[in-house]
Amino acid sequence: MAEPVYEMPAFRDETLKVLAPGHTYKTVTDDISGVVLRRPYDRRWFVIMAIAFSLVSVLHLAIAYLLLRGVGVWGINVPVMWGFAIVNFVWWIGIGHAGTLISAILLLLKQDWRTSINRFAEAMTLFAVACAGMFPLLHLGRPWVFYWLMPYPNTMDLWPQWRSPLIWDVFAVSTYGTVSLIFWYVGLIPDLATLRDKAKNSIARTIYGAMAMGWTGASRHWHRYKMAYLLLGGLATPLVVSVHSVVSFDFTIAVLPGWHSTIFPPYFVAGAIFSGFAMVISIAIPLREWYGLKGFITMRHMDNMAKITLATGMLVGYGYMMEAFMGWYSGNPNEMFTQLYNRPFGPYAHTYWMMLGCNVLAPQFLWFRYFRQNMFWLFIISILVNVGMWLERYVIIITSLHRDFLPSSWSMYHGTIWDYMTYYGTIGFFLFLFFLFVRVLPAISITEMRELVHETQHHGGGHHVGAHGTAAPTSEGGA
Amino acid sequence: MPQIFHPSANTLSRLSILVALVAAAGSVTIFYLIMRSPYQTQVKVIPTQPIPFPHEHHVRGLGLDCRYCHTSVEESSFAGLPPTHTCMTCHSQIWTKAPMLEPVRQSLASKKPIHWQRVHNLPDFVYFNHSIHVQKGVGCASCHGPVQKMSLTWKDQPMNMEWCLTCHQKPEAHLREKRDVFNMEYSPSEEEQLSLGKDLVRRNNVPVDRMSNCSVCHR
Predict the structure, then answer these.
(1) Of the residues B14, B132, B181, B191, which has the maximum number of CB atoms within 10 A of its CB?
(2) Which residues of chain B have a CB within 8 Å of the CB of A205?
(3) Residues 6+ apart with CB under 8 A from A207
(4) Are residues B106 and B28 in the same domain?
């Protein structure tokens, strides 16, 4: 059956379409489910998995040694009681934010370019939250009594300390993880049904079938699905802002120069989205390249994500500027010392200037379309942003702590080998989960891409994706 | 295409929601019960001792004072376990051939202390001091129960933090005159106890407002 090839309205730039021309329900279904169901042998995948799994083993080793010897194996000391663990925690939690922003806020804003990237961005969120959650738990020293953080009827007659932002963190992060998981899973259900219908292997069919929870593609199913998805989108939206605001309270509630600042919540949220989009770009570039998904994750997506990275990067730069300005404007000698002397010229000055280079200077190239659409440069910039955002948390935490109010307790902080092993281990764990995900679940929403085909063919442009309940039937791909 | 699942899968999947809820609520309940059960607290559990020492016989039967054996209870954090010599003040004269007391004689001969099993063992992160409790008027029986009735010794109270705090927050319900601290048969009426307790809190300078501070017990 010859599908009519839809001509997009004339964009200024022909590459900026949300879906490559010529796609039909069948090609969309086959191309995306093929990555999972046909599983062509791919050496690059095995190489990545081998590296990632080795790093997971390193993580196991680091955690085992930590449990054996205690948190003293890390570089933390007095006065720097928070080291890599909190740097990494904030870094990973921040990375997760792009997934929620893409899936929730862009859904409510009806941005058609979210559809090809939301699924793997949400997966990225979940895996990043899993990595983030490890650090505060390990930092407890006795992680096996982590449940003491929860209010439950205990024999100690104790209740969590509600005045501590660390308890707010527990609730913010666990809510975030739960809502993200449910949102991701609900979005997957029609796709799981497609995989169930297309799988040849009976075990795969049973697993996908059980996970699809009896989805038949009936209009009643679609109606409820759309409603649930929209409601979950509404639920997840405040989380984009609230989670990292609460994380920033870990710092602002303390009366430490460089932490006790009202700019922190918005500045942290901007930084989170900034690093999150950088991570989505870093993942999307190899993903579309290796799995033939360039028709789905088009230049339009890369270009838009680069623009958001630039915009949030500018906000982060404004944050740095305001921190320094307020340090001077406050007239407080401790603030002035931290913001105007210790950070730019103190013993960690190199970290500060590298942070500015990565987070403020590097994204400036994204003003130019050449850098936004050249995958090599975009990848380099996105990695630099990820590094820069890690350095930002390092600067905030270490420089404020190592020079506290009592010069007699001043000290230096350096991560030990176990700090680095734990950190790199979680990167391996993240990659491991992500590349496993790519091969067992559809990395792009098949359902929403079919909707996009429908929209572009029958409604003259993909501007209303998800706006009404029409969608292609589940088993269309086999037709 | 044949169906993957039998129609009964519909019922099973609905049932699984119920099962998950029951399992979640059930496991919390079970953990809650275990946490307070003798399995966890060791209350009324009699540990096997090298010698079946009867407090009942020595305290109620013979009228020995607690301090005859637990000598340091008034001035030390540790109440003190009697050395073999204390046993031998009597048992070098009476029951000298009793087979039950063989480990005591061996201990004296070999100069190796008797290996008693602890009945009350607080975790290392708790700082506990017997002397301050005795000085402020907490009776032995308040924490250790009716020792004079224990033919073999058991732990009478759970000794978890919640239990400690009931008294640290409301000590007037348990305080006694100094002379009654070692009185195992002491049993005032509730009204007597409360009026006396309030008076003792004042007279003994019991700092109730500070007694729930973390650092009182966790130093």
Answers:
(1) B181
(2) 4
(3) none
(4) no
Enumerate the residues of chain A whose CB falls inside 8 A of the CB of residue B5. Answer: 206, 209-210, 214
Other C-beta atoms closer than 10 Å to the C-beta of B178 total: 14
**Three-state SS sequence of A217-255:** CCHHHHHHHHHHHHHHHHHHHHHHHHHHHHHHHHHHCCC
Q: What is the full DSSP assignment across A42-58?
A: -HHHHHHHHHHHHHHHH
Q: Which residue of A has its CA nearest to B14?
A: A213
Tell me: do B76 and B182 sit in the same domain: yes
Closest residue in chain A to residue B164, using alpha carbons only: A156
Sorting pLDDT into bands at 50, 70 and 90, what band is B140? very high
Q: Determine, for residues B160 and A214 on separate chains, whether the beta-carbon distance falls below 8 Å.
A: no
Calculate how close chain A gets to B45, using CA atoms only, in Å: 19
Helix (H) or strand (E) holding B36: helix B8-36
pLDDT band at A273 (very low <50, low <70, confident <90, very high): very high
Residue B45 lies in a domain: no
Residue A311 is part of which domain span? 25-152+169-478
Strand partners, B155: B43
Strands (E), A243-347: none
Instruction: Please name every residue paired with B179 in a beta bridge, in sequence order, or none if there are none.
Output: none
Q: CB of B187 within 8 A of CB of B149?
A: no
Q: Is there a contact between A157 and B161 if contact means CB atoms under 8 Å apart?
A: yes
Question: How many Cβ atoms from other residues are within 10 Å of residue A421's Cβ?
Answer: 21
Judged against a pLDDT cut of 60, whether residue A8 lies above it is answered with no
The reply to whether B138 falls in a domain is yes
A199 is a domain residue: yes
Cα–Cα distances in angstroms (integers) from residue A263 to residues A321, A330, B17, in the given order: 11, 14, 45
Residue A250 has a pLDDT of 92
Same domain, B103 and B152: no
The neighbouring-strand residues paired with B43 are B155
Q: pLDDT per residue over A431-451, tens digit each?
A: 999 999 988 999 888 888 888
A474 pLDDT more than 80 = no
CATH number at residue A192: 1.20.1630.10
Q: Are residues B77 and B152 in the same domain?
A: yes
Contact residues, chain A, for B36 at CB < 8 Å: 155
pLDDT tens string A96-124: 888 888 888 888 888 888 888 888 999 99
Domain coverage including residue B208: 55-81+116-217
Number of CB atoms found within 10 A of residue A177's CB: 18
Residue A196 lies in a domain: yes
Q: Is residue A17 part of a domain?
A: no
Q: Do B4 and A157 touch (CB under 8 A)?
A: no
C-alpha to C-alpha distance for B7 and B4, rounded to whole angstroms: 10
Q: Which of B95, B91, B74, B75 is nearest to B83 (CA)?
A: B91
Residue type, A202: S
Residues B108 and B121 in one domain: no
pLDDT, one tens digit per residue, over A321-367 is 999 999 999 999 999 999 999 999 999 999 999 999 999 999 999 99
